[in-house]
Each structure stands twice: as structure tokens, then as C-alpha cells.
Amino acid sequence: MxxxxxxxxxxxxxxxxxxxxxxxxxxxxxxxxxxxxxxxVMIPKTFGEWQDEPKTDIQIVNAQEKEVIERIYAQTLSRxxxxxxxxxxxxxxxxxxxxxxxxxVHKPEICYPAQGFMLKEKHYETLSIRGGKIPVTRVExxxxxxxxxxxxxxxxxxxxxxxxxxxxxxxxxYGLRGQIPDGLLFRVSSIDSKSAHAYQMQxxxxxxxxxxxxxxSRKKLTGITxxxxx
Amino acid sequence: MAFAHEALRAPGSTQPPAWYGWAILxxxxxxxYGPSFNDLFHGLWSSEAQAHGPIVxxxxxxxxxxxxxxxxxxxxxxxxxxxxWPVFVIGLLLYIxxxxxxxxxxxxxxxxxxxxxxxxxxxxxxxxxxxxxxxxFMIFMIPLPGPLVDAVTMPMKMAVSYVxxxxxxxxxxxxxxxxxxLMIDQYxxxxxxxxxxxxxxxxxxxxxxxxxNLVRHDxxxxxVTLAVCVVPIxxxxxxxRVMALTLITFYFGDEAGQGFLHGFAGMVLxxxxxxxxxxxxxxxxxxxxxxxxxxxxxxxx
Lengths: 230, 301
Hints:
Order of helices and strands of chain B: HHHHHHHHEEEHHHHH
Structural class of chain A: alpha+beta
Largest sheet of chain A: 9 strands, antiparallel
Number of helices of chain A: 7
Order of helices and strands of chain A: HEHEEHEEHEEEEHEEHH
Strand content of chain A: 25-35%
Largest sheet of chain B: 3 strands, antiparallel
Distance between the termini of chain A: 73 Å
Oligomer: heterodimer
CATH class of chain A: Alpha Beta
Shape of chain B: globular
Number of strands of chain B: 3
Number of domains of chain A: 1
Largest interface: A-B, 39 and 42 residues
Radius of gyration of chain B: 24 Å
CATH topology of chain A: Protein Transport Mog1p, Chain A
CATH architecture of chain A: 3-Layer(aba) Sandwich
Strand content of chain B: under 5%
Helix content of chain B: over 70%
């Protein structure tokens, strides 16, 4: 091949790659399809036997410092609920409009230790709620005397990513269709020296909460389309 | 591409100047990687943890430039390789997937494939051989995937805090540790990501390898040993940095500690690491010399 033709061919191929990658870049944000979500309104302040406790002296562990939170998440909600027996449950939801490399959600098993917590145990489980199952991750953390078991899950688009479904793969399955998925981290935790009891209370809390909100919000939070049962 | 021009002006050449072709190829690379690096400079590379990226890029370009005449000589009159074409296609595919799907490890990694391919197509295997280190060095500017960084950073932070605590405790300081929080006197210090991350390790490994390349050892043993030693060296440097920060806070208060953290901590880390690398290297050299003398002595007798 003559050098001139070779150079030209290589150049065209490189330009083509540049153009093609530009064309294949997802531009459509799923988050912009529906009405913007408002976590503050979406999650009721009272449901079942749980009630929002506006003034609390418990410090909820933040994902990161404040500036990082604002850069990563479009919206965050953190509340402490209390039930009739005085059992306190901490709820933290972080919602992001996109989840690219620089805007990844921070998993509790990363952000808790980063604040000085010890990670004691981690396992996966499936929460059966009305209409479907949520694959959750359970992490037991402690800070000195404070024992804090956590139940959490992460969604990408309308799917929950768990141990079996890699987050990046789900994002790519959207990306290849030209879509940018939104995502959220849903986390509940309670300060409780008996972890088994804590997990049981958290499951009850989650079930009651999801039972008390409208189907659309439930789908957003859990990826499960709930069919009303007879 | 002024340097290419110099090297290519063969006396009595009637063909269109050969730098013309290289300029076209460079233009193609700019079309692909201009936007990528623009994104990186405005995003990831502007953060403290990834600040080594631009430096590595600059050093790689300088290495290529420096090797260019040597490469030209070595590959003059040698056959080019058609293997460059499949490598070129792989590079392009990696780029397309990486750039469109936001997978930086593919997007930036593809540059190495493309450069290797262009060298093979244009000048042949000899040219690639001459430039291998510059291309290899570029690996260090590829941003690491977040989950991998997270997975390695935490245990490293734990270990660094643990060792710093143990050393200071045995030196008689009133220090205690809770996970990655060090408590000395009335102060609480949180060992942050930047103190013990995979990034620091990665950067130091790059510094160490660059040192090796510039010093040019002929001993494979020495090269490999040093490259491996960078890992414990990086760890030690991190421990020293955390201890320095802790002691400054202990003696001069919180403000002094924070001042140190933002001003000098990074520099202290790199100076310590570089000094350790040079120290280990000198020791290795010394050890090799002794062994050689010992081997030489009986044969001479």
C-alpha cells in the first residue's frame, strides 16, 4: 500500500472511531422522562407504627462530606423514625440523575469505615415484600459501643443491582440503548446491640414504608412493579 | 511534530516529505483523544487523588520524543509489520466502547494500543521495541475503576493506621485507635483516602519505574526487586506521613496539623518514597557488588 493511501486510511478510521463514539454516547436521561421526584414528599413522615422524629440527637452517618454529597447526588433524604416502643430507625436515601464513573453512589461498606466505623460482617439476603423480592445487602458496623446493623440496596434505572447483577453492566445495558439511567441508594440502619433483632425491625420498617406509598414511588425505590392483589 | 521533520529530512529525497504522513496521523489521534483528555482535565484529573495523571502523560510524551531518533535509526530499512492492523482495530473498538459508555480504562487504555499499532504499521517491530517503555508508562495514567480503588483503599488505610498507632504507642505517646480514626491526646485524626489510597501506590510505582528507566540498570534482578519493593516502600512512606501529621498535631495543635496536611504532606510522602527507593537501590547495588567480588575472587586465584 502506498504510504499516502495508508495514512489517509488510518486517518479516516480514527475520525470514524471518534465520530462513532460520539454518536453512540447516551444522551437521554431517564430521570427527565417522568416528573422530577421529590424524596421529601415521596416518603411519608408517618406510616404504620413509625413516626418521623424531627429533633434527634442521633448522628446519621453521611456518605461523604457535604460538598461531595452535593456533587454526587441530586437529592438526599435522611430521617430518623421512632416507633411506639421508642425504637429508632435511621433512613437515608440518596438519588442521583446519572451514575457515571465520577458520580458513583457510595456504598455503606465504604463510607461507614471511612468515618471510623468497623465493618464486622456482611451478607446478602432477599427481602420478600408485597409484589416482589428485593435483593438487599446487610452490613454490621460498630463504632466503639455503637453497634449499627445496616440494610441497603442500590437501584440503577428500574432495577436493583445486587451481588449477582453488576452495576456497571446494568448501566451499560441502558447506555447501549442511548439512555442514561438514574439511580438511588436506599439505606436503613438502627443502633442495636442485637443484630438479628435489628434486621428484623428493619425488615418490618421497610415493608410498612413501602406499603404506605403510591405504586409509582414504590417502583422508583425498589424496581418492582406492584400489582394490586385480590 | 518538529522533531519528526528533523529526523526525516533524508538528503536527496524526492518523495513528499514523510512528516506529512505523521502529521495526518497525529491529527487523527487528536480527533480521538482531544475530547477525552479535555474531559479528564476538567473532571477526574482536577481532583487531588488523580493529579498524577497529567504528569504521567507529560512524561510519556517526553519519553517518546527522546527516543524518537533512536527509534528511527533502529527501524530504518527494516520491514514494517501487518500485525499493526489488528492491533489498530482492537484499539479503535476499545476506544469506541470506552468513550461512548464512559469506561475510562478502555477509553484511555486504547491510546496505548493505537500508538503501538501506528508504530508497527509505520516503522515495524523495531520501532515498537525502542518505544516500549513510554507506552508501558502510559498505563499509569489510566484512571483506575472506582470499585477497585474502593476495595483496596480501605484495608490499606486500616493497615496504615494500625502500624502508625503501634509505632507511636510503643514510643510512649498517648495514642489510641478506632478503625481509621487516630486519637492522640485530645485530638482526633481521620486517616483519609488520600493518605493511603491505591492512587498513591500507583503513583509511587510509576515514580519508581521511571527512576529505574532513567538510571538504566543492566541487572534484571535489581530492576525486578526494586519494582516489587515499591509496594512496601509506598506503605512505609504512608505510615511516615500519617505519623508526621499525628505528631505535628500533638505538639503544635490542630491548626498546624491541618496546615501541614494541605501544604507539605504530599511532598513529604514523595520525598520519603523517593529517598527510600534510592536507598534500597544503593543497598542492592552494594549487595550485587559484594557478590560479584566474591565470585570473581576464586576464579582469579
